[in-house]
Amino acid sequence: MGHKAGHKAGHKTGHKTGLLFMILTLAAAALAAGPVVLAAGPALAGQPSSLDDLLKTEPGETTPGNFGDEYRTAAMNDAAMAWGMQAGAAYQRWQLQQTLVRVEAQMDDIFNFGPLVIRKAGFTIMPPVIVETEQAFKVDGSGKRAASARRRFNILAPARIVSDSGILQWHAYLYRSVPEVLPPPAVLFPRDKAEAQQWRAGLREGWQLGLVFEDDVFVDDVNSLLRDYLGSVTYRVLLAQHMVSEPDIISSKTPVDGGGEIMDVSVTNIVINDDARLNPLITDWVPRVEAVY
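^ that's the sequence the OP posted. Answer follows.
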């Protein structure tokens, strides 16, 4: 399996799919329970406009000037679609933020990165992220050589030094600010009943596209959270089994550093001298694993 190859891989889905399903189930249950009073915070703004609000909105003041009729219909339809999509995405994001508030305690318990970090000389280090793939397969460019593996491990991200406030939190993955969505210029609003029908159809179509778009964004964010959390857990498991090494972390003391305008006294230095590495020596693994052919 050492030659260069393009590859296809079957992903490990058990724990990841289960957690994703659980999060989305919690979200659906919380949403079905009805409105929640939100705590003030940067990620949670006032409720955005609903689709009904958009459909009832009248044009405001506008600057003089008119579009030619040949351009107006297309511009009006594009404006309705864009406004509906932006507003639908903002509304769905706000709904998801409400849901996360409801399940915050459960999420804090499930996605707790604290016990997974590495402590060294008073510093905090986020562990490597290791992705496990089952039934990995690769084939070279000629199509004449191929290999498969029952399990494959890949260090996706190395260990890194962070401050205590830099320890990963699930909030950073799933909370997003809700943007303010402004209506289009008044000149693009419908002028008669026929245009109003087109306008409403564009708003509804854009709204549905916005809902789907924001759902996809949320699922991507959840997958990123699962990748990093489960990848950190995988590192800890493999470390206990001697299947991966610890990062080589070197600390040293310096009596004084700097001078002039800034001087530090009694300084502790730390450096990651070498990253964690997967250990291919089966005889080192605990429990010992025999190669299976």
